[in-house]
Amino acid sequence: MAGLQWMLRWRLCLPWRRYGGLPRGSAGLSLGKSLRRGLSFSALSYLAYEVYRKFSSGAVVFANNKVISDQILDKADYLYEAGETEKLYHFLQEYKESDHVEILWRLARASHDVAMLSTTPKVDKKRLTYEALDFAQKALSTDTEHFAVHKWYAICISDVGDYEGTNTKIADSYVIKGHLQKAIELNPYDATSYHLMGLWCCSFAGLSWFQRKMGAMLFSTPPTSTYEEALQYFLKAEQVAPNFYSQNLLSLGKTYLQLKDTINARFWLAKAKDYPARTDDDKEVQKEAAKLLKGL
């Protein structure tokens, strides 16, 4: 359904790649020490890390007979930042029996990311999608105060909805919104949570009459939102981390178009068009922004 297409848009380039799935969270890392793990590693810094790893034991936590150390998490985050999606997945599978929340939400993210790869067979995509939700559910049962857990739980529920139909998507919409709001509450400095909330608002602001009727069949008060509300979330994301993500720039431009504000729409679409293309998603953003600008 057109109004729910954002549910299909979770890509590897989302900001959780950098900050907790971040987005490369998005799902995100907890503040403080977790933010450190969200920083990119250069090749040189990784070599230094390998030397350090050999001579330092670091902080260690025992979980189900598996040793979870800062070095393990650092290696996982290095592989994530390096775009080694499948290597990261196989590395984390060694710890899939862990009950350590920092491992569990990363396992959810890794399963999700492999499922999103174009090279992953269709039958495996479904298995990995449900696997990701299992890890996210386990993470949530382990720690309800970790913002990355709530973000990835919302993402994984959305992904599973793609296999279970529109009714399930709409029925889960309140759950998704609630977990994104909780992620923002736990970490108000995570731009990707605001971006995802903006997408949620756009999806329900743009529902067709038929979709609204379907929602009314499932809820006495079906989920609703407005483009004005979506705009505030996209703007907040930019306030927290300016130019952090090409899709947020594009979303701002498209939302202003919905609000008939062509001046601001042109401004944000131009920024999206000129955004440095580091990923395939960035390139698609550039093309869409350029096409929209031509129509103004």
Automatic annotation (TrEMBL):
<dbReference type="Pfam" id="PF21033">
    <property type="entry name" value="RMD1-3"/>
</dbReference>
<keyword id="KW-0963">Cytoplasm</keyword>
<keyword id="KW-0802">TPR repeat</keyword>
<comment type="similarity">
    <text>Belongs to the RMDN family.</text>
</comment>
<dbReference type="InterPro" id="IPR049039">
    <property type="entry name" value="RMD1-3_a_helical_rpt"/>
</dbReference>
<dbReference type="InterPro" id="IPR011990">
    <property type="entry name" value="TPR-like_helical_dom_sf"/>
</dbReference>
<dbReference type="GO" id="GO:0005876">
    <property type="term" value="C:spindle microtubule"/>
</dbReference>
<comment type="subunit">
    <text>Interacts with microtubules.</text>
</comment>
<keyword id="KW-0206">Cytoskeleton</keyword>
<protein>
    <recommendedName>
        <fullName>Regulator of microtubule dynamics protein 1</fullName>
    </recommendedName>
</protein>
<dbReference type="GO" id="GO:0005739">
    <property type="term" value="C:mitochondrion"/>
</dbReference>
<keyword id="KW-0677">Repeat</keyword>
<dbReference type="GO" id="GO:0097431">
    <property type="term" value="C:mitotic spindle pole"/>
</dbReference>
<dbReference type="GO" id="GO:0008017">
    <property type="term" value="F:microtubule binding"/>
</dbReference>
